[in-house]
């Protein structure tokens, strides 16, 4: 196994898989502050001409985020909303209500436009649609993949899974937003950032493979 940095700065591992059945696994103990996602209603929207060059790629369309087909809809729905944090939150509120969540609705080919038209999906679809609307509104937005446990939420808890959310650039920094849950959460474990899910798949195979099963666990460990 070898490791490298991708163009987005993510740490990646590369492996030549043996023929036959094999298992990949990892486990880690994460030290989390216990603080929820930052909420900053005062965060302003940076005029597009003043955005840092490093953020401009997150204004462009990408594999799952068709800005060219959703720009008119974005401005019709959110063009009159206050700028900055309030506008991103308005996007999240709409996406949260518009998409019906269900694991049975997962599709690896569904794009932001598909999620908008179908009104169903999983966390990555919420993120893709919110990201696309933000980009259409000249707000840089990038896709985040990782783990999100149930810390701070009420049971019963669903089986563990990978999670997706996004970050929007406001003022002079990136802020976390989550259109799927649409409220501050505790204990996000960020694995990678990119333009959309195509850039940061948890695994990519070059050849014939069959995924038999996967298990995700994010259990809270109470300090002594």
TrEMBL record:
Residues 115-181 form the Transglutaminase-like domain. InterPro entries: Papain-like_cys_pep_sf, Transglutaminase-like. This is Transglutaminase family protein. It comes from Variovorax rhizosphaerae.
């Amino acid at each position: 196994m070898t490791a490298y940095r991708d163009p987005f700065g993510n740490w990646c591992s590369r492996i030549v898989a043996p023929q036959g059945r094999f298992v990949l696994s990892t486990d880690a103990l994460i030290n989390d502050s216990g603080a929820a996602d930052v909420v900053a209603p005062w965060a302003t929207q940076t005029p597009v001409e003043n955005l840092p060059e490093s953020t401009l790629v997150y204004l462009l369309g990408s594999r799952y985020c068709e800005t060219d087909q959703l720009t008119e809809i974005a401005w019709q729905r959110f063009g009159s909303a206050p700028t900055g944090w309030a506008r991103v939150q308005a996007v999240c509120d709409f996406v949260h209500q518009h998409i019906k969540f269900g694991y049975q609705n997962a599709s690896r080919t569904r794009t932001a436009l598909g999620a908008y038209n179908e009104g169903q999906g999983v966390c990555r679809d919420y993120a893709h649609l919110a990201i696309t609307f933000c980009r259409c509104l000249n707000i840089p937005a990038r896709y985040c993949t990782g783990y999100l446990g149930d810390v701070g939420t009420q049971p019963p808890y669903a089986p563990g899974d990978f999670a997706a959310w996004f970050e929007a650039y406001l003022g002079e920094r990136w802020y976390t937003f989550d259109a799927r849950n649409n409220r501050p959460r505790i204990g996000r474990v960020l694995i990678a950032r990119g333009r959309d899910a195509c850039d940061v798949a948890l695994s990519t195979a070059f050849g014939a493979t069959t995924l038999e099963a996967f298990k995700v666990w994010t259990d809270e460990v109470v300090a002594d």
